[in-house]
Amino acid sequence: GGKAVMVRIAVGSGCEAPSNRRLTMTIDRMTLKALVEKGSDEDLLREMMAYVANRMMDMEVESLTGAGHGERTPARINQRNGYRDRSLDTRLGQLNLRIPKLRTGTF
Questions:
Q1: pLDDT band of 49, cuts 50, 70, 90
Q2: Maximum distance among all alpha carbons in the chain?
Q3: Which pairs from 28-35 meet CB under 8 Å and 24+ separation?
Q4: Residue 33 is inside which H or E element, if any?
Q5: For 17-46, how does the pLDDT look when each residue is reduced to its tens digit (9 = 90+)?
Q6: Cα 101 to Cα 19, 31, 64, 98, distances in angstroms
Q7: φ/ψ (deg, to 5) at 102
Q8: How far apart, in Å, are the Cα atoms of 50 and each of 32, 67, 97, 98, 105?
Q9: What is the pTM for the complete model shown?
């Protein structure tokens, strides 16, 4: 038989407007569904770890900039400036990460 895996991922920093939060959660659920359908347990774990790491970095950048990705607000204190692709070697194998860049300062 197959294995059933239940994963709960809390998304959003709590600072975004309710409508943005609902959209983010829907996108995250669709992404998680695509990962589950992907295949082997090893690949699934590796992809999930990369996904979680990338999402955590995005949430930290949201707190550093004072706004979500693409959000326009007078509270913004910095701006994003793309991503750097980096790989991280782990026990699960190599994770492909997208490290956010900021216009001012470093991340």
A1: very high
A2: 54
A3: 28/55, 32/7
A4: helix 18-36
A5: 444 444 455 556 656 666 666 656 778 888
A6: 26, 23, 11, 9
A7: -115, 150
A8: 12, 23, 6, 9, 24
A9: 0.61
